């Protein structure tokens, strides 16, 4: 096990624990801001179509190993979703998605992540983020910076902005290019066995399976060899010995 020059993190259930994510709650918040809703379409009706669209593009309701490798940006998704119902907004799509996320998501930093990031800074180990997420990169950065204001992430890659989703090698290769590092110099930490652990390993990056905030619905285990941790303090101790 080599001491890394950079550790790249997943977002959800890795650096941030999304304790609750309720799309219906988010859609309800968005509809309150609608300028025109001529048919009085309900949040339930909108969300039912959103689930159908998610299945159509291979994002939701599909086994992790069968999900699409391509990302659809949330602004495009929202445009279809609301124009379908003739719902109009005076706010730009960026603000509509912010309203949705703030309404849907209740989140907090994962246990000891603030201390771990501080430790990495003290050891001159660089950090960054790759997230499979349809929200815009700007909103993801805003959200992370709000929850982890002292972070020193060099870059935050949202799949929405770069076509590819994990576990596709292209998104990992992009991160390596941005970091100007070889795969052997990098660790990747994430909660998802397929997207994060096996995806990183297939790209030659050392994978860390973080299970401290893993969702109960996550039924997969990695096929690749990895470091398994339940608390960030475990890695602090390991890195202190390297």
Automatic annotation (TrEMBL):
Record bears the keyword Hydrolase: yes
- Keyword flag Hydrolase: yes
Q: Gene3D superfamilies this protein is in? A: HAD superfamily/HAD-like, Putative phosphatase, domain 2
The alphabetized UniProt keywords are: Hydrolase
UniProt-listed NCBIfam families:
HAD-SF-IA-v1
Task: Please give the PANTHER family that the UniProt record associates with this protein.
Answer: HAD FAMILY HYDROLASE, HYDROLASE, HALOACID DELAHOGENASE-RELATED
Official protein name in the record? Haloacid dehalogenase
